[in-house]
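Following up on my earlier thread - several people asked me to post the actual chain instead of describing it. Fair enough. Here it is, all 250 residues.
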Amino acid sequence: MNNLLISEPPLQVLPSLAKIVGLNEAIVLQQFHYWLERSNNIRDGYKWIYNSYSKWNEQFPFWSNATLRRTINNLEKQGFFITANYNKAGFDKTKWYRIDYERVSNASAQNEQTSCSKCASASAQNEQTNTNRLPETTTETNNNTSDNKSDHIQYKQIIDYLNEKAGKHFRNVESNKKLIRARWHEGYRLGDFKKVIDNKVLDANDANSFFTAKYLQPSTLFGNKFDQYLNQQIKPKVEKGTKSYGGVEF
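Reply from S.P.:
Thanks for posting it. Predicted structure:
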């Protein structure tokens, strides 16, 4: 019938329809469409439905009678509903309703055209803005770029240093980079990472330490204890068979 209306159980509504007519109106419009498809009331070549407001209100118990009346009237004023009176008794003022499906289609097309126009306008404006913001490539720009290299996260240097000192083969993958990035954003730099690696390599070589070579990995070194490892005081290893007095081995 129309790509904005569905022939399924009541109280379902497409967001695109709600965007055009309003949420309350979309719910009522969809419900009327549901009953129109099942109606046997044919007048002047169209299907019609009718009901009293109190009966309609039973299908929308979450609204007051005033809200329902206002919503139906809004749809009528916007031209989505066409009303008539086919009652047998002249005193019966119950309204008969049908949907102007052509009006729904036109509203959909108009909304799509407006959206596309806005997208095109926004795209053109964004393109113009980006073009205006593109800096010229000058010596000054290149020098500034070089000066800011110290702020670039040195993933490879850190991983390579760890592999060299610990005899490992870790790769520069995202899981390792994520840990490095977290510490880097806390203000730590390449020298700090190297010191942590040096501290824990010495620690792992200490027979009295609980920290062993298996912990020499990014997940351990660059985790939440990074600052603790950085400030750890590692005692120089004393070779067996030697004694030390006053800092002099003999």
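Confidence is low (pLDDT under 50) at residues 129-150, 242-250. That should answer part of your original question.
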